[in-house]
């Protein structure tokens, strides 16, 4: 009786593992495909002959990549953007989430302010007024345009997440501190923030991934390639061009220059940093993301 | 208190951020432009050098993959910009640069926000938009006084079309380019080695073309034993079913040849039976052509992946495709790689299929597609003209190997409308020995002709009158092969065939089109694609015609009538 | 409670964040007036002529308008549902796995696509689903005709939804896993003593344990009903699938920036914002009514 139970249980395990492993396999596919493309020959790639294994295996594209100074410039811009964007996010989010996690009874203006935030999250004036505004601030070609515009559009969601986490922190802690005569700054910095590292790690991760992957604002606010962040730089390589707006010699130049294997090498390198970030934040955000509902 | 300090330090950080951001240098254009005395008092000299350096901030297309610049040169400091500086004393600056895929978007952004460079290259739609918004300078006098005779000659060779396209209310609002007319004819390219292998002849009619396509699909022309061949390629996501009156040139892998052979000219403005303009896409001929294409698609004669592929050139390179429609310069496109991949891929070009009367009746393009515009309040509008004069006069001096031609500021193509035809005839005569290369040295408007005739024997093997791929030496000089093959194979049908071409009544937009055309065109593109691919019945065409008229088509037709008369 | 006078500190905490949002989110909203103008770029937002509701009238005569709204909502709702259920199922399966090492590895692999941008994934997906790509080759082995996946308007929305779920499920799985680890082991022991098998435990212990998390996630995602994923669709679509795949954001982008129809683009964008605001308010009150919980 006991034996047969464990047998059926083992069968279930095998089925389970097969399904899970298959699903996991599909998740590595894009990475693998890009890698094998980057290690193939130019002609094979142009003919679409590369599938799961490199054709005419070689490292040419990586050698070429080393000579592409713009790639590394853009890479560095993206790193800066991520650090500034996530840093700013890390400072502002708890500062805003703490007062807004209070009830109307404790903080009268709370609801109006909260709904204003929701409003800014949903409404926008379109790209052109945004462009004019940024130009008016003198932020064209500045990394701050990327950090501040992108950040402003994603921060509200992060605030909501953090509010929910704050609310689920044990009330007794704050009450005890109040009895000891602690002020709001003390409570936020000495009580809430240390307890909220999981959620702050989570919103930082959101912010990092967002700033690393966003490409449109680089295109809009940067007037020259030298200021592009990495994803914008990659986007202009992989987008196809409408030949009817080109003259024949433009097309000629373009097709002579097209190099899918080099593009793949760039894409592959671009995937790496953000994948490296995750393990460092993983242990925190598993808790941070649950909105504190676990303990209910 | 401790927490107060923290507050202030945080506030300080925030404001430091904002301050740091605000103090960043802004690359504005206006401040850099120096105040110069008006040039009107000087005599107009197309090549005149300014006494004091002036600056011009332009929008420039820069291809990120172009690594031709050498020795620390940059898109802003290279042989071209230095030449402009030395010859004209004009300092070129970049208001913005963008890759070919993003250039249009940057131009749109500049227009929409009225944040314009001093000068830039735009297309016809943007030109019209800028004229409407009163953003650009009237260049009538500039053109008359400053355009070099060589440029005027080339522009006049288009028979007035080039200037018509930039004239609004009698004023010249932009400097037009002029490109070879051959760009606008879409030949039929065929794998002749496949034809030979299957014992077939080039198809003369649409019916025969279907049979050839069928043979290509079913009879395994590449002999690999697999069912992997495509009869006729179809457009990819960056190309169209057919060239239209706004984008009348360089449509790759479309069905232009089939439409034309059936006397259907979708996307073109034609003279109707009553003498009034009518839009080709809503005529019964188009419905018929669509039904032919629909049958071909359902029978598997057309690439099943048309409209979805990122690049139809891929299957040409890999040797899966047997036929496609494209302009003479396809060797500049996928054919080079196709031949590298398979030296037997004998791509030949034909002025086919013919119509019911046995005539070749393709649609013809405008030779003007790009324009240089100058910002309204820019102090030196003639500088743009001088830069272009300088280009045409000195283009042969530049060395493309130390910086591709695309780095020339405000570059427009200036080629006589018959450039390719003349080149083809000249090369044939040189090959036949009836003329010597020196006989063609004195034709400066045909910029590349001298090098073409000088190098033809480097790439063409005997017999000199057989253009099959095995009689070419590709390895010797790839660049020259591309050019010579484009002429002797790509352009040859245009020289040898009597072309009864059809022009559009207009090649630019009218007023209502600005608002409505995009949506009408989308309606058209979607309906036609779906009809061909069989996801909508053929009779969806009738509904399309009705919708098209109702959603602004009728108004636009009236406007076209006004514009034409 | 000694929280009197805290409010002014709360306001102070909010100042930096609000300055940021005002400068980069609210100021650019002046552009909304373009929807009511006949916008002339030469005269700018402040010089253009006002035409009242003209643009909105035209907007409603276009077949496109209703179509893109329908597409957006259809795709977004399917994504919301899928992104709730698939990760839940996956988390439950993973939770059944008793080999900790394997569990960790699979968990770490499946979140991978979440970190890759659509710029990158778009190209890879198009290749994999191409007419002669791996998927069709697989179908061919089972004797099936190849399918033109990304060219079929009837399939496109499902491919979009499917690929989005595939990209995000690993990440969402983590949320559920965290909730699962929060369930008191004593409950399982008790059930075991009562003779419950694996399925019964799942039904009576596991599912009730993560109900709150599921509800909260569902409510939070309602705010995304009008965000069907610009980056994704922008990198995947083509004219063949406009009829079912064009969403508000892609349409607005094309109309406003590529086709120079500023007024129309702004008007559609504004309509989207208004509907979004209504929806999020609705979900806020519904969540409050049913779970007695204020989500922000």
Total count of helical runs of at least 4 residues of chain A: 14
Class by SSE composition of chain A: mainly alpha
Question: Assembly type of the shown chains?
Answer: heterotrimer
CATH hierarchy class name of the largest domain in chain C = Mainly Alpha
Shape, per Cα inertia axes of chain C: globular
Q: List how many beta strands of chain C DSSP finds.
A: 2
For the record, what CATH class of the largest domain in chain A applies? Mainly Alpha
Give the name of the CATH architecture of the largest domain in chain A: Orthogonal Bundle
User: What is the mean pLDDT of chain A?
Assistant: 82
Estimate what percentage of residues of chain C fall within beta strands.
under 5%
End-to-end Cα distance of chain A: 38 Å
Radius of gyration of chain C using CA atoms only: 24 Å
* Cα radius of gyration of chain A in angstroms: 25 Å
Structural class of chain C: mainly alpha
SSE string of chain A: HHHHHHHHHHHHHH
Q: What is the count of distinct domains of chain A?
A: 2
Question: Main sheet of chain C, how many strands, which sense, barrel?
Answer: 2 strands, antiparallel
Overall mean pLDDT of chain C stands at 83
Strand residue percentage of chain A: under 5%
**Which percent range fits the helix content of chain C?**
over 70%
Q: Would you tell me which CATH topology of the largest domain in chain A applies?
A: MetI-like fold
Organism (chain B): Gracilibacillus ureilyticus
InterPro entries (chain B): Bact_solute-bd_prot1 (IPR050490), SBP (IPR006059)
Main location (chain B): other
Pfam families (chain B): SBP_bac_1 (PF01547)
């Amino acid at each position: 009786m006991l034996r047969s139970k464990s047998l059926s249980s083992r069968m279930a395990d095998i089925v389970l593992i097969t399904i899970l492993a298959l699903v996991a396999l599909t998740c590595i596919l894009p990475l693998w495909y890009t890698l094998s493309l980057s290690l193939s020959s130019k002609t094979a790639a142009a003919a679409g002959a590369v599938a799961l294994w490199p054709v005419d295996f070689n490292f040419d594209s990586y050698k070429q990549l080393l000579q592409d100074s713009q790639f590394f410039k853009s890479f560095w811009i993206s790193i800066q953007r991520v650090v500034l964007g996530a840093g700013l996010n890390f400072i502002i989010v708890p500062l805003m989430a703490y007062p807004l996690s209070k009830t109307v009874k404790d903080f009268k203006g709370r609801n109006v302010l909260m709904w204003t935030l929701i409003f800014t999250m949903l409404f926008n004036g379109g790209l052109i007024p945004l462009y004019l505004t940024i130009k008016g601030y003198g932020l064209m070609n500045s990394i701050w345009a990327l950090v501040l515009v992108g950040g402003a559009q994603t921060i509200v969601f992060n605030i909501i997440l953090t509010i929910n986490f704050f609310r689920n922190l044990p009330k007794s802690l704050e009450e005890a501190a109040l009895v000891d005569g602690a002020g709001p700054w003390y409570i936020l910095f000495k009580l809430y923030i240390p307890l909220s590292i999981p959620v702050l790690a989570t919103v930082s991760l959101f912010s990092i991934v967002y700033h690393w992957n966003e490409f449109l604002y680089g295109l809009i606010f940067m007037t020259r390639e030298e200021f592009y962040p990495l994803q914008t730089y990659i986007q202009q390589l992989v987008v196809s061009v409408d030949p009817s707006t080109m003259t024949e010699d433009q097309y000629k130049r373009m097709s002579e220059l097209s190099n899918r294997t080099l593009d793949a090498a760039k894409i592959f390198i671009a995937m790496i940093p953000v994948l490296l970030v995750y393990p460092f934040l993983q242990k925190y955000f598993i808790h941070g993301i649950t909105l504190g509902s676990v303990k209910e | 208190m401790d927490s107060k300090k923290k507050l202030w330090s945080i506030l300080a950080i925030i404001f430091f951020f904002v301050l740091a951001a605000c103090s960043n240098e802004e690359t504005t254009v206006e401040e850099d432009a120096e105040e110069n005395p008006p040039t009107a008092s000087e005599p107009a000299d197309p090549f005149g050098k300014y006494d004091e350096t002036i600056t011009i901030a332009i929008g420039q297309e820069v291809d990120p993959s172009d690594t031709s610049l050498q020795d620390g040169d940059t898109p802003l400091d290279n042989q071209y910009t230095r030449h402009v500086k030395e010859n004209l004393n004009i300092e070129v600056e970049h208001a913005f640069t963008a890759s070919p895929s993003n250039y249009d978007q940057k131009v749109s952004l500049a227009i929409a926000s009225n944040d314009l460079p001093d000068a830039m290259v735009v297309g016809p739609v943007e030109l019209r938009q800028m004229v409407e918004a009163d953003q650009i300078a009237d260049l009538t006098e500039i053109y008359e006084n400053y355009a070099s005779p060589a440029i005027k000659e080339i522009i006049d060779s288009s028979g007035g079309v080039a200037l018509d396209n930039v004239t609004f209310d009698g004023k010249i609002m932009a400097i037009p380019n002029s490109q070879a007319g051959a760009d606008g004819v879409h030949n039929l390219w065929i794998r002749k080695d496949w034809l030979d292998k299957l014992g077939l002849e080039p198809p003369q009619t649409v019916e025969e073309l279907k049979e050839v396509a069928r043979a290509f699909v079913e009879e395994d022309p590449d002999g690999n034993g697999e069912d992997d061949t495509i009869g006729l390629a179809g457009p990819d996501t960056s190309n169209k079913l057919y060239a239209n009156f706004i984008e009348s040139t360089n449509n790759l892998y479309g069905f232009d040849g089939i439409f034309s052979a059936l006397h259907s000219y979708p996307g073109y403005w034609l003279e109707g039976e009553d003498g009034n303009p009518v839009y080709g896409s809503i005529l019964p001929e188009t419905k018929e052509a669509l039904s032919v294409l629909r049958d071909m698609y359902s029978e598997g004669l057309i690439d099943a992946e048309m409209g979805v592929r990122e690049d139809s050139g891929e299957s040409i390179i890999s040797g899966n495709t047997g036929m496609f429609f494209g302009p003479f310069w396809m060797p500049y496109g996928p054919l080079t790689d196709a031949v590298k991949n398979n030296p037997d891929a004998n791509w030949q070009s034909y002025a086919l299929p013919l119509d019911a009367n046995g005539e070749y009746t393709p649609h013809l393009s405008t030779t003007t597609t790009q324009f240089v515009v100058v910002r309204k309040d820019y102090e030196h509008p003639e500088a743009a003209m001088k830069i272009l004069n300088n280009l045409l006069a000195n283009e042969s001096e530049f060395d493309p190997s130390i910086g591709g031609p695309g780095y020339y500021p405000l570059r427009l193509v200036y080629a006589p409308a018959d450039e390719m035809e003349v080149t083809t005839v000249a090369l044939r005569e040189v090959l036949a020995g009836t003329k010597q290369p020196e006989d063609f040295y004195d034709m400066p408007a045909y910029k590349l002709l001298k090098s073409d005739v000088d190098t033809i024997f480097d790439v063409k093997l005997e017999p000199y009158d057989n253009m099959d791929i095995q009689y070419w030496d590709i390895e010797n000089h790839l660049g020259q092969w591309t050019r010579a093959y484009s002429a002797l194979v790509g352009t040859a049908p245009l020289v040898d065939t009597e072309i009864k071409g059809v022009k559009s009544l207009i090649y630019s937009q009218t007023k209502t089109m600005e608002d409505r055309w995009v949506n009408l065109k989308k309606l058209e593109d979607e309906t036609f694609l779906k009809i061909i691919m069989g996801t909508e019945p053929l009779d969806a065409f009738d509904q399309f015609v009705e919708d098209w008229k109702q959603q602004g088509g009728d108004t636009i037709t009236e406007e076209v009538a006004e514009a034409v008369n | 409670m000694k929280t009197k006078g805290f409010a002014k500190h709360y306001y102070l905490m909010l100042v930096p964040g609000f300055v940021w949002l005002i400068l980069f989110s609210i100021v650019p909203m002046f552009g909304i007036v373009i929807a009511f103008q006949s916008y002339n770029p030469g005269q700018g937002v402040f010089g253009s002529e006002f035409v009242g509701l003209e643009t909105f009238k035209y907007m409603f005569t276009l077949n496109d308008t209703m179509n893109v709204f329908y597409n957006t909502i259809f795709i977004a709702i399917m994504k919301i549902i899928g992104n709730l259920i698939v990760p839940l199922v996956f988390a439950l399966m993973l939770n059944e796995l008793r080999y900790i090492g394997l569990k960790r590895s699979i968990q770490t692999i499946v979140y991978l696509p979440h970190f890759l941008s659509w710029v990158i994934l778009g190209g890879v997906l198009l290749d994999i689903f191409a007419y002669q790509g791996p998927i069709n080759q697989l179908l061919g082995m089972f004797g099936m005709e190849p399918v033109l996946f990304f060219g079929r308007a009837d399939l496109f929305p499902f491919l979009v939804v499917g690929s989005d779920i595939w990209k995000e499920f690993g990440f969402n799985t983590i949320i559920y896993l965290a909730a699962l680890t929060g369930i008191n082991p004593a409950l399982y022991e008790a059930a075991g003593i009562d003779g419950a098998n694996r399925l019964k435990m799942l039904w009576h212990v596991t599912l009730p344990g993560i109900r709150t998390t599921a509800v909260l996630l569902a409510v939070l995602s309602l705010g995304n009903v009008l965000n069907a994923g610009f980056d994704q669709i922008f990198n995947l679509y083509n004219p063949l699938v406009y009829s079912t795949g064009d969403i508000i954001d892609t349409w607005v982008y094309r109309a406003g920036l590529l086709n120079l129809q500023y007024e129309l683009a702004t008007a559609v964008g504004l309509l989207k914002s208004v509907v979004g605001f209504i929806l999020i308010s609705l979900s806020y009150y519904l969540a409050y009514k049913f779970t007695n919980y204020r989500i922000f």
